Amino acid sequence: MHSDFLNQILEKRGFTDEEEIAKFLNPNYETDMFDPFLMRDMDKSVSRIREAIKQNQKIVIYADYDCDGIPGAVILAQLFKKIKYENFEVYIPERNSEGYGLNFEAIEDFRIRGVNLIITIDLGITAIEEVTLANSYNIEVIITDHHLPRRNLGEGGVDILDLPKAFAILNPKVDEYPESMLCGAGVVFKLVSGFVEKYREEFNINLGWEKWLLDMAGLATLSDMVPLLGENRTIAYYGMKVLHKSPRPGLQQLLKIMKIEQKTLSTTDVTFMITPRINAASRMDSPMRAFELLGTKDETEGGALATHLSKINDERKNIVLHIMKDVKKHFEKREDLKDLPVLVIGNPAWRVGVLGIVAGKVVEEYDKVVFVWGKDENDIIKGSCRAKEGISIVELMTHAKEYFKEYGGHELAGGFSVENEKIHFLEEALNQSYKEIKKTDKSETHHIVYDMKLNLRDVNMKNWRELDRMEPFGLGNPIPVFLFENLKIEKIKKFGKNGSGEHLEFTFSDNTKRGMIAISFFSDENSFSRKIWGGGTVNLLATFDLSRFRGREELRLRIVDII
Prior knowledge:
Layout: H1 4-12, H2 18-25, H3 29-32, H4 42-54, E1 59-63, H5 69-82, E2 88-91, H6 104-112, E3 117-121, H7 128-136, E4 140-144, E5 150-153, E6 159-162, E7 168-170, H8 184-199, H9 214-223, H10 230-243, H11 249-257, H12 267-284, H13 288-295, H14 299-332, E8 342-346, H15 355-366, E9 369-375, E10 381-386, H16 393-399, E11 404-409, E12 413-418, H17 426-440, E13 452-453, H18 461-468, E14 482-495, E15 503-509, E16 516-520, E17 537-547, E18 554-562
Parallel strand pairs: 1-2, 1-3, 3-4, 4-7, 8-9, 13-14, 16-18
Antiparallel strand pairs: 5-6, 9-10, 10-12, 11-12, 14-15, 14-17, 15-16, 17-18
Helix pairs in contact: 4-8, 5-8, 5-9, 5-13, 8-9, 9-10, 11-14, 12-13, 12-14, 13-14, 14-15, 16-17
């Protein structure tokens, strides 16, 4: 059973059928996970991996450098370790020197070192030329990916997929698999599940062993911003359960440094605390440091790596801060800003590895589609792009593809590289593309500003426990936002690490309750839709937030906006 309070929120989100609600609130691993063999090339893939093992062939796990590819690499490496197969290695390209995806130099190196099989993770679906090169060296490739493939217009204007000639392709976006929105590590988890299902007895793998890998699949699913509905919800739900008791020393040491209790780890802790530190490895150092952290069985090594990743994440924050100051200065000088749906900004001195974060912040602040570029270690212009809902960034780039050397990504996020002489014309070209797409796009996006109106007395543990049943929150299942009307601000206090004062703590009251604490991180008096000084009453948009600071539970609000 569930309360009227929870029922109203679920109804607003389109859940009206009791069976559907029960399934959403209580994911069931046995019934809600799809058969991995529904992926078209699954049988072919697991058979090829078994053949490689039986013949002691050299396997390379070739993974992306973010918090989707890295946990995915841990998942597959753990399978090989479980069955005591040693003739494999993990290769993760360096973000700043090699860039995203399979690359020719790495494949040349694999040929010299006698590699027989490459298994990609979270990449490869657009690597047509690279796979052709590998094939010419008798290196077979199994692609596991979830990105959008290249498309070409065939005869008569028919839209056709342009896929690499790999030995096998596991990508739910190019076959009939029921959950098209799996993340990269989710696809690899299905591969391992398929292998275990088919060869469990042959390799003496204990029943249910693969469920311990859900901590990595869950971490990636939460980190990669895929919708937390359907099978993804089940992966994230059980992933959190495994994360609460995961025996990984590196993960435990990282949580210790961040002062987070493992057994009460939240999805917010994962996305705002763990994910940035995993991603910091490739942005500021080598992605292998993050792979080593998640894969190590040694507590001392785990502690050293956790300290290192936390330190370089702090350095990354400073770099982003300085770039954002430059961005704001540049945009202040531009008078045409309000008329342009797409903004392009860059500087050869900006570190390519952090530009995805910068692009995300610019989208948040300016509510535009944003392309941010810098130059990598090889003096090539590379960048990241982000979009708001209602426009596909890959479609946008496809419309202006003559301006890009390479491009790819998801609906709302992507990466690109551009010839030096074309970068100055990119903004104009993309704005023209945007107009063309919007002419033919009749879809509308509806945003729920808030889920329900509440009074402050409704902020209680009973209602928090009901909301907790909707976890894990994320894309497709956002944390419920509530509107509190006519609140009086009793007190405002600045706080922060080492007295920095970068966060705000409010004390609110209404006619039902006094002394309600509400927090707004990385905020000042200009962060809200209305002025917060000067008395009077305000309307507040906020979410419930259970703080467990120093082991003490305190229910408070986290501010979305003051209006």
